[in-house]
Amino acid sequence: MSYDLSQLGWDDHFASSYHRFDRADATPGRVLRADRGVCTVLTATGVTRASLGGSVMIDAARDPSLLPCSGDWVVLRTWLDRRTTLEHVLPRRTALIRRTADKDSSGQVLAANMDTVAVVEPIHPEPDDARVERLLALAWESGADPLLVLTKSDTTRDPGAIARQLGELAPGVPVLPVSVQRGDGVGELRRYVAPGRTLALLGRSGAGKSTLANALAGATVMPVQAIRDADGKGRHTTAYRNLVVLDGGGAVIDTPGIRGVGLLDTEGGLERAFADVIDLAGRCRFDDCGHDTEPGCAVQGALADGSLQPRRLANWRKLRREVEVESGRRSARLARPRRAPAPPSPRRR
Fold first, then answer.
1. What does pTM read for this prediction?
2. Which of 16, 120, 165, 314 has the most other CB atoms within 10 Å of its CB?
3. Is 210 part of any known ligand binding site?
């Protein structure tokens, strides 16, 4: 069975990056799923499994975010013994990266080369404003276009009102209420998965990401776990990142359900997510305004007239401090000299 890779986003940009690796035993492909040391890759001739080659492992030892993940375009090599190895990850056009839990502030790639990142937040039991702001900062930083998808819109009488309310937290971001059960909004969401385009789904467990992927595919392609009705939470049903190819072209990347997302070098994404606060800060009388008691502070003025909520300002400050700390840690880690390998022990005679 053959596949037209252009339907998944293969274009002149990636073809140009691949050109220097092109040889008789090499072929390009897109990663569907990445497991420990092995990737499932779609090529023009079908799906294959490939172990990681030496160059990829060397790059990943320097920076774990360079490991292949769902959505990556890669170079495969077929050996005489019929083994297939993944030799190179082509430069990413976009990348969704979160901070890992370690103290060195390394990054974990959740998805790559997507055109749109949909922050998926359930209306039931209640949207979490702070989580939406954090995930939108991550989405903006990825380089892709953010989208806010409100699932389970059938659980409220007026989903439009909730969409307008959350839209105030997402300057410049489309907000789409969706009910898979009733089919509301699914057709509009499908427009983001046109041939050659990729949509990544980002949100907590139980938000409805896998349900959305199934609805877009028109079939059960991702497992869905029943959730507790009281709090809307469920188990981590999607513990891996998986790219789903849709009939007619396009792809959806279902990222794992996440309880928390650490921000890394996301200063630019943070500014886009809090564009209203940044705009107010630019109107302050003093360039170094701390937005507390300084005269002529536009931020404090917005708090006084109610156009800016104290909670939003507090979360902006919290996330900005987090990014500053993690950026400092990451810079320190990258500046540390590498340890030279230990010399071999002398042999005993």
1. 0.87
2. 120
3. yes
